[in-house]
Amino acid sequence: PNDPSMAAGMCYPKPGDLIEVDRIFYKHWALYLGNGYVINVTPVDEGAPTLSVSTLSMFTGQAKVKKQLLKEVVGNDSWKVNNKYDRSRTPLPVEVIIQRAKLYIDMEVTYDVLGNNCEHFVTMLRYGEGVSDQVSNTGSA
Description:
By secondary structure, this protein is of the alpha+beta class. The protein has helices at 4-7, 53-57, 70-74, 94-104, 118-127, 133-136, and strands spanning 18-22, 27-34, 37-43, 60-69, 79-81, 108-112. It contains six helices and six strands; from the N terminus they run αβββαβαβαβαα. One of its GO terms (molecular function) is phospholipase A1 activity. Keywords: Hydrolase, Lipid metabolism, Transferase.
């Protein structure tokens, strides 16, 4: 069968690109490092299925930053490169983004679905500050 990770993406990511993955009830975000690898935030509890909605959406506490193959993170879900904040923010130089990202691999970070989610993490790497409109779309908190 054809490789869903490339077919669904339509365009090939470049290092430093933000990858938006369509999960059933939410968007998962990763940052493309190059050579097929991404960095993303996953729950610390290894027993928890990394991709389940209940784990991530209700999950607050510690999370682990992992370097994984894009196709492993995406599975059968569709994904696209989405550097949507480039219109309003200037990305850091690619070397800086990748250097910053590598510092976080295997680190534990605080995770909070509203204040510090997977999108905040990757935008912080790309732009130097974390942004997420998943939060602002939910109305006032």
